[in-house]
């Protein structure tokens, strides 16, 4: 990488930030596309008052290309932007900021990135499909939104804390004016089994399955043989949940695709150029030691 007087900066704001694979992916992409941009991680502390606002102002002041925004800033960043894309506004979260001549524009590429990789890896498109989502946090929100927006016939949100699932389901059904969304408790074995036996897609959006965390416990025997099983965890790439699903002969989708494709869409928003998706995937895999 050669930094010159005309090099521009892009980056990612998060707390913590040390684990991010985005610098590896985006720098490989900028280099491959011959763009004079470097991508840097920025630790924007959530316990420091005003830090996020100042960091966002710096995008303009330093004439940066734009940034990714990750946990825990995706929701709070919205109030500091000049404009927010309709999908991101309805999701209530921004993960990509583009600096267009000093106007800071917010987008969310998580949901679209997820669907893009799901289609590429498994051939599944959401239209008319029933989805079952484990978890009710930020990742569940973007995936549920994208599925509903793209014609899923139903989305059931199953969460350890039922109130959170009910809250997310209520919010999305109001915002999307849809009755295609429901909520259940992860501990409600009977309801789980019924909903899962209907599902075309089962997605884990929680951190269960990461090293040192527990496993996703859902009754695999209830799955349709045509169901796709998806996990957004990518450390490890094949979680215990996916391993069991794969042994049961089900189509599986790992978390690598969402990571790569949300980044690819962000790259395209910043540069207007087509993202070198394969280069980005290889960089992410190297970062994961694969
Ligand atoms: P993110 O923005 O990454 O989705 P989050 O908002 O903290 O993160 O959400 C984490 C999700 O993982 C939640 O659905 C959480 O369940 P609760 O709402 O009950 O907390 C879920 N989760 C985390 N650890 C879990 C565990 N050990 N068992 C079941 N669910 C878990």
Structure commentary:
The chain is an alpha/beta fold. The protein has helices spanning 22-32, 51-61, 86-91, 110-122, 138-149, 162-175, 189-198, 240-247, 256-271, 277-287; strands at 8-14, 37-43, 66-69, 83-84, 96-100, 103-107, 130-134, 154-159, 181-185, 201-204, 228-231, 251-253. It has a six-stranded mixed sheet, with helices on both faces. Helix 1 packs antiparallel against helix 10 (277-287), helix 4 crosses helix 9 (256-271) and helix 9 crosses helix 10. The longest helix has 16 residues, at 256-271. It binds 2'-monophosphoadenosine-5'-diphosphate. 2'-monophosphoadenosine-5'-diphosphate binds next to helix 5.
Topology:
Elements: E1 8-14, H1 22-32, E2 37-43, H2 51-61, E3 66-69, E4 83-84, H3 86-91, E5 96-100, E6 103-107, H4 110-122, E7 130-134, H5 138-149, E8 154-159, H6 162-175, E9 181-185, H7 189-198, E10 201-204, E11 228-231, H8 240-247, E12 251-253, H9 256-271, H10 277-287
Parallel strand pairs: 1-2, 1-3, 4-6, 7-8, 7-10, 8-9, 10-11, 11-12
Antiparallel strand pairs: 3-5, 5-6
Helix pairs in contact: 1-9, 1-10, 4-5, 4-9, 9-10
The protein binds 2'-monophosphoadenosine-5'-diphosphate.
2'-monophosphoadenosine-5'-diphosphate is lined by residues 71, 135-140, 159-161, 164, 205-208, 214.
